Amino acid sequence: MSYSAEVYNTAEREMERRRTEAEQALARRREILYARSPRADEIERQIARTGVAVAKAVLDGADIRQKLEGLRKQNLALQKELAGILTGFGFPDNYLEPWYHCPLCKDRGDVDGKMCTCMKSLLRQISYDQLNSCSPLSLSDFDSFSLDYYEKTLSGGGRSSPYTQMMSVLGFCKKYARTFQPSSSRSLLFQGAPGLGKTHLSLAIANELIQKGFGVIYVSAPTILSKLTRENFDLDYKPDSNATEQLLADCDLLILDDLGTEFVSRFTIAALYHILNSRAILSKPTIVSTNLSISDLQEMYNGRIISRIIGNLDRLEFVGTDIRQLKRKRRQKPAET
Ligand SMILES: [Zn+2]
What we know:
The protein is α/β, with parallel strands linked by helices. The chain has 12 helices and 7 strands. It has a 5-stranded parallel sheet, with helices on both faces. A two-stranded antiparallel sheet has the order 1-2. The site of zinc ion has 5 residues, from loops.
């Protein structure tokens, strides 16, 4: 996986921040310990002096074995006394070591010249954050989704009321987020007119999964397809540019909001097909939301794309009356009466 220089630089800065944080926290722990036990301060100084004495003994040469043995015993006794002080205060054994974010690489990002797994996941996370930066990800959760706006009466020949239908959609989405597995969760199609909660529920799923540590990319179809178009046709664009496509194919869950509102060209159709197809081949779940009906989608895209969209996604139908309009009406009501 290749990332842009900007992503690498951000990751390096984050690693440096983590190291500094671990070292500063250690310095603060030392101060606390020394304030409680000046003897601990003295012992640490003595241990440091033992190190110097060892170097000196080596340089002096004479009686070296005996001297080193004496220093080793002294050092062990000091370590033991220090450990006793730490235990006495109920501090852990590693109280006087830096508590790194990643003990494997000590927050340096590599182990024996190879990139550490923590650096790999950091690079991936930074790239997701960049792609997600335009989405109002922190704004929606399941608790703020209200069923009050959906009618409880049957209308338009439906088998269940909008309220009942949306209650089951909400329940499905909650369970989906709760039991999500990147390798086995199904792909979904959220379909329905604007203002029925498709964006709200897909953001709620994204939010919950991000908090659980999954790699989620949430993008609107127009935004991502114009980004891919720009990257593809911009001659100045650097060759690491297929990073966006790789991220879209690679993340644990891709949420593609507002399909059908983008500018359609031969390139965007091919790009869309490529994204959905790569994920389907890897059995990675995707959630697509659209205001369009299947026949509208068929008119907009060619048959290959439609069979990919419909064939592999479980359809969830969003029904009711545009919530934004209802909210507006409810707000205006007191003024009218
Ligand atoms: Zn590491």
